[in-house]
Amino acid sequence: MSLKFATSHILWRQFERQNDVPAVDDGQLKIVKDFVNGFFHSHGHTGQAQDLHAYRWYAAQNQTFRTMLTQLVGELANQAPLKDLDLLVLAHWTPDVEVGCSVTNAIIHEAGCHDAFGIAISDHGLSSAFLALQVIEDYLDDRDRGGRGKTALLLIADQDAIMYDSPSLARFNPAASACVVMLHSLPVEQTGGQPGNIAFKHYRKVPFPATHQALDALLVTLDMFTSEEERLPLLILTTPGFARQLREHGPLATHRIESWDEALLSCAPWARLEQLAPNNHRILLMLPEGNSLSCAGFVAGA
User: Fold this and answer.
1) Mapped to the 3 state alphabet, what secondary structure does 158-218 carry?
2) d(Cα 77, Cα 62) in Å, to the nearest integer?
3) Which CATH number does the domain housing residue 168 bear?
4) Which residues touch 25 (CB under 8 Å, ≥6 apart)?
């Protein structure tokens, strides 16, 4: 089976915070702060909830994952039927504004795909959506539908209204954003290359290439593509910082290197991929995360 998607089935948006938020009374504020303090205490954190964070959380109620994704799923439903979805996977880095909501269940209800299975991935940082692709491929490969194609929906969302100070989040100057990607798993013999279609190859997580020698060997280490696919030009999408590093490294600088807007957090690679809509290319999404480099490989229209 081969997992594919069309660039026209990548829908994403940045969501602005509402300006006409109702005033918060002291009772509501106390409930929120008590919840946060209880959460801190249960995790051995000595900090206290701050009014600033609680007010910001209230002002972000139009930026819950369910609210943002429901809008995009509704738009996707105008392009493609959703009632026969087999799987929905939510990938996110930041917590949801709406505490305790099962986002995948809400979207299953919204889309009417009542036989679908829904899960969430939130413990792999900003690369959660990369891992989600491998999860989707593995799950759909294990389902027997008599050789017929299967369909999944990748849901991605992040927002900036968290209840504590986070320098690691603030450095991105983040914006609430969401993205949906509709994917099809088809038998290999039915997946001839078509303009606008992108085939998923592999998910890889390797040690960050901190030396010139490691950068020289990076593409070999990743081992993403077949010898025939290696003939296609390579497009690398990554963070602005790593893009600068790659452009200064001779062997890799010969390839096309583009960067994404980090303010979009987990949605950033997908938004840039939709904007570029490459054809007849190998594609590598590369995300440095500490001592690791998380990557997803694709082949577009070949």
Assistant:
1) ECCCCCCCCHHHHCCCCCCEEEEEEEEEECHHHCCCCCCEEEEEEEEEEECCCCHHHHHCH
2) 21
3) 3.40.47.10
4) none
CA nearest neighbour of 64 among 156, 157, 128: 157
**76-127 pLDDT, tens per residue?**
999 999 999 999 999 999 999 887 789 999 999 999 999 999 999 998 999 9
Question: Total domain count for the chain?
Answer: 2
Is residue 235 within 8 A of residue 278, CB to CB? The reply is yes
Residues 75-86 as b or e (16 or more Cβ within 10 Å = b)? ebeeeeebeebb
Q: Kindly state whether residues 223 and 172 are assigned to the same domain.
A: no
CB-CB neighbours of 13 under 10 Å: 17
Q: Using CA atoms in the order 21, 22, 28, 34, what is the torsion angle rounded to 10 degrees?
A: 10
DSSP 8-state symbol, 100: T
pLDDT tens for each residue of 159-200: 998 888 889 999 999 999 999 999 999 776 554 556 669 999
Burial of 213 by CB count in 10 Å (0-12 exposed, 13-18 middle, 19+ buried)? exposed
> In terms of domains, do 70 and 118 share one?
yes
